[in-house]
């Protein structure tokens, strides 16, 4: 395939969708309707699934970066004849600023080509393919723009050079001299809208996007004053870019079916909102953004989950709260690096994953001051989740890694049931009657006893992935992070040592023995555990090592190959960036504790480090 490596892509966002553009100036992914909608450019998953490239003719080198505090990408191409720059941005609504960005984005992609030196021949290739590459549209020039319509989708492209239209394609070759600028704007609209997409000048698209993203960054600039500020702020901006503006839901990733292992079949659709990510996302936004963002997230999950009965709690949703995410394959696509199948939808929505109970109640405890007084619907939701935890902790489930072979008694799921019950007990009479609190407390103690006895493996010297199992699983590292055990507890300390020794290489931690690559958030969980155990210097060294694993734009995929360093899995991955932010917070807090223990004056608590009184046991 010609789409380049996963890590070679940059990420653009507009609060509804995402664009991935590679180092060679090719837009290889865009689902303009919404994150989980059909693609119009899908070359990531097959050469014939559509792309839009602007690049020099002949050989070139590339240097690129985001404009400061934005998701606007500038790529500089250097050739033997001169240098040109391409600046790419997804449009935000003109005038939208701060928390309002992404609410009503016009779904327009702007690209500005600038001559910096010499005279460079540039080639533009435009090949839209609708419905994940299934449909080739007719291209028709009308009123100076090239329209492409098929089915429910209409694209309109306007530029400063004439394009030659062929069989579903358009192209042009033009020379860009120093000081010259060429603009190209592509807009999406549903076919049966009353009006075609409005196409502002591309420089206007770029200017509005820069102003919008910087206004968001300015709101949060002084909130986080802990360690590794630059990478934390960049990760916070990426997480914000993964947010579906109209609802506030944060998708796990911008893509579907990018493989965890090249040529493998673990290629899932991650363009949905997982409840599992919810608590960690709130913590990350609390640390790196501001409570307003966290408050919006809690409002989203309360609306999406609705009234909970006795049925298993839904563990994931579409960006507007949809529950039925039935999975199907796109057999016409070869997949990234011939990794089949290619999926749309994700059947994990049907699974029982009991850890989500703890995720929501932990998030509510973090937000407790903003839930006072507690609305009746929120109170009902939290009580229902606690009640479920008293029963479902005894049942096997699919676990946080969403196993598709069989349900098991996963230790991390039990721990999160404990978290749900522990937080419910802390809420006390705000959440239930005295008899409820007593019942939750009794169940909490039962869960704890079961995990401490049945989760421990004497032969291995560690808490393993499931009751009675000999297999390690890095998910048990959440135990100190949720307050189930202190990180310096003898058995927890042994677990951390065994997990690191057997699953880690080059600072990258696999989830289990035969996991094909290091899982980024697990690696950051180890940072947090080391920091909580007082090993601050080692935690800091590991954090710095992991922070150096981002691509040149500061982006992570889900996994990273321990040998080659190649990014694998869907991209960019919100979970990975959330892990970085929370690990930086744990490190900042550990440094403060060490400073205090050394008898040095306590520094003012850094805003946004997440040290909230009573937030962790």
Description of the structure:
It is a single chain. This protein has two domains: 6-216, Beta-galactosidase, Chain A, domain 5 (Distorted Sandwich), CATH 2.70.98; 222-597, Glycosyltransferase (Alpha/alpha barrel). Helices cover 32% and strands 20% of the residues. The protein starts with 8 loop residues before the first strand and ends in a 20-residue tail after the last helix. It is globular. The protein contains 14 helices and 25 strands. Strands 1, 2, 3, 4, 5, 6, 7, 8, 9, 10, 11, 12, 13 and 14 form a 14-stranded antiparallel β-sheet that branches. Helix 4 (276-288) runs antiparallel to helix 5 and helix 8 runs antiparallel to helix 9. It is α+β, with helices and mostly antiparallel strands.
**What is the CA-CA span between the terminal residues?**
50 Å
* Residue share in helix: 25-40%
Mean pLDDT equals 93
Q: What is the strand content?
A: 15-25%
Number of helices: 14
Tell me the number of structural domains.
2
CATH architecture of the largest domain: Alpha/alpha barrel
Whole-angstrom Rg: 25 Å
The CATH class of the largest domain, by name, is: Mainly Alpha
Shape, principal axes of CA atoms: globular
Number of strands: 25
